[in-house]
């Protein structure tokens, strides 16, 4: 019998996830890390149960930022493999589909690498091998010499059709947004909430709707700032509740109005502080970081309402992602010679 058949076990899985969540780094830990050297960061990680095994296993082959990078990716993959191993029944199906976000991440990472002519090793370091794509496919993608070659390699995957449809827009505009949006649309189509019913799954559906709303907001702003003659409405991702395609086009050129729409929505009460940070964001990257923090805060609040749903698991996935991204940003910032204050600006901390 497949793991997606039979009875779900949210009580057990969420108890295990709460234990892992308690071990994640807090703001004080990050303030310590930004004042450490890469070698000191690795030693700090070695003292954490989440990274001890990975640091010890990789320490004989790598050092400094390389050791940190490989340990982070290994820990992330191991963490999510553990969660899938714990899950049974429909819970397994929901979590497995959600974790395909890392396939989406890897596709976008490879496309960005080809677009920017980034060295293969640097792109490989940014891959998160925690989705369903096997190493053989990922290695083939890393060897692709052109965007259309990578798109062809993905033709038999869940991203194939939407990427093929977006290729003309990419070639006519020269910007990646149409392809990145195609990956997002394919992923969220995979997560369609039509089959989610009952109180616990209604909460998960609400979270997915929020994630799609925020993704639509980010994509529209990226399009507006790309300089390309592309209508955000044409890149609208179905499944959200906050914007219509036409409204997204209108709001994409006015960040203040877009934030106002979020503040007036069902997200407003739970995200008051996060929305204030959004209003103060001085760049698109800072705005995106603030939206990521807002989504994590929203997932946490929903998980408290119905702790035996899939939402606490998804909330942990987001939190673990943020920890890995934060540690990576600190290590790379140190390698680049940035000041602690500059590095702190790159972090997403609740």
From TrEMBL:
It is a peripheral membrane protein. This is A-type ATP synthase subunit C. GO terms for molecular function: ATP binding; proton-transporting ATP synthase activity, rotational mechanism. NCBIfam families: AhaC, PRK01198.1-1. Keywords: ATP synthesis, Cell membrane, Hydrogen ion transport, Ion transport, Membrane, Transport. SUPFAM superfamilies: V-type ATP synthase subunit C. Its main location: membrane. It comes from Halobaculum marinum. One of its GO terms (cellular component) is plasma membrane. It is found in: Cell membrane. Has multiple subunits with at least A(3), B(3), C, D, E, F, H, I and proteolipid K(x).
């Amino acid at each position: 019998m497949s793991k997606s058949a039979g009875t779900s076990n949210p009580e057990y899985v969420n108890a295990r996830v709460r234990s892992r969540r308690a071990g994640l780094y807090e703001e004080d830990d990050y303030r310590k890390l930004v004042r450490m050297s890469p070698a000191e960061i690795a030693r700090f990680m070695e003292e954490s149960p989440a990274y001890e095994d990975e640091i010890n296993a990789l320490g004989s082959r790598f050092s400094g930022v390389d050791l940190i990078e490989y340990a982070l990716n290994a820990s992330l993959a191991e963490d999510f493999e553990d969660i899938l191993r714990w899950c049974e029944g429909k819970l397994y199906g929901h979590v497995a589909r959600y974790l395909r976000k890392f396939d989406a991440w890897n596709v976008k990472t490879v496309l960005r690498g080809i677009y920017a002519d980034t060295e293969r090793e640097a792109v490989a370091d940014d891959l998160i091998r925690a989705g369903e794509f096997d190493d053989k496919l990922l290695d083939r993608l890393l060897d692709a010499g052109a965007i259309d070659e990578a798109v062809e390699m993905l033709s038999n995957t869940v991203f194939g059709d939407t990427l093929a449809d977006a290729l003309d827009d990419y070639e006519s505009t020269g910007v990646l947004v149409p392809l990145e949006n195609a990956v997002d649309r394919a992923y969220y189509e995979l997560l369609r909430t039509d089959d989610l019913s009952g109180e616990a799954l209604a909460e998960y559906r609400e979270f997915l709707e929020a994630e799609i709303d925020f993704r639509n907001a980010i994509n529209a702003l990226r399009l507006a700032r790309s300089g390309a003659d592309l209508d955000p409405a044409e890149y609208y991702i179905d499944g959200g509740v906050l914007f219509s395609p036409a409204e997204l086009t209108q709001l994409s050129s006015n960040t203040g109005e877009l934030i106002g729409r979020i503040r007036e929505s069902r997200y407003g009460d739970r995200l008051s502080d996060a929305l204030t940070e959004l209003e103060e964001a001085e760049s698109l990257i800072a705005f995106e970081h603030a939206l990521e923090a807002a989504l994590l805060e929203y997932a946490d609040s929903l998980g408290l309402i119905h702790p035996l749903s899939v939402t606490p698991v998804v909330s942990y996935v987001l939190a673990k992602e943020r920890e890995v991204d934060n540690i990576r940003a600190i290590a790379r910032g140190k390698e680049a010679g940035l000041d602690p204050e500059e590095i702190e600006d790159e972090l997403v901390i609740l």
